[in-house]
Amino acid sequence: MKAFVSACVAMVVIAVAAWAVLHYAVDGSSQTANTADRGSVRLN
After folding, report:
1. pLDDT by residue (tens digit) across 2-44?
2. Helices vs strands, H then E, count in the chain
């Protein structure tokens, strides 16, 4: 039972960490996408 509880806790921790990473990645991707668009416009 302890192993099951610790596995659930680990899954929750991993899920929260993954959500936080995705959340911040999405926030930052709008800025990087804008700079990438500007760069591609310059290249074209």
Report:
1. 999 999 999 999 999 999 888 777 765 555 555 555 555 555 4
2. 1, 0
